[in-house]
Amino acid sequence: MRNTLSLIALAIALPMFATESQAQERREIPAYREIGIEAGSEQRQALLDFLRDFREAWSEEDTEAFIALHTDDSEWINAYARMFTDAPSLADFLENRLFPAFGPGVSRTEAENMELISMRALGDDAAVLHLYTDGNRGPSAVEGRALRRTHFHLVLVQQSGQWKVAHTAIMDARD
Hints:
alpha/beta; Nuclear Transport Factor 2, Chain: A; 7-stranded mixed sheet; 7 strands; 33% helix; 30% strand; globular
């Protein structure tokens, strides 16, 4: 497990050391890529199945189904630095604060617009999914853009043969 955590930290830190020629312009979405995942593999399909379930639970604002996709000690930080360090407190936030604060169409739009930027396997039992969505959960920081672009970094681990979110970092473009 220690090696897995070290690999996760390395996968998150490496992009910070990109050279200028490797860096993307602000808000530019790089071409989709998969790292360490074999085409046609069971692992790839299981990750895509996980993402389908993630989108569906978010779209339906199904807190129970969404939290079932997380480890009990899942960490979650959003673009406003709200931090949760376990699934029950995240469930309470979603059910009693986030979802009721917006119409159900907001989560549905976000789920429909979710796009993968990358999937990275960290061995057989850990992976990182980077995705983004365009939604209307608050104003866009980009002049002329109606929808707010938000990025999700999901660190997944295998638990009892299922992929679960161990850590979520959510961010959006700010001026």
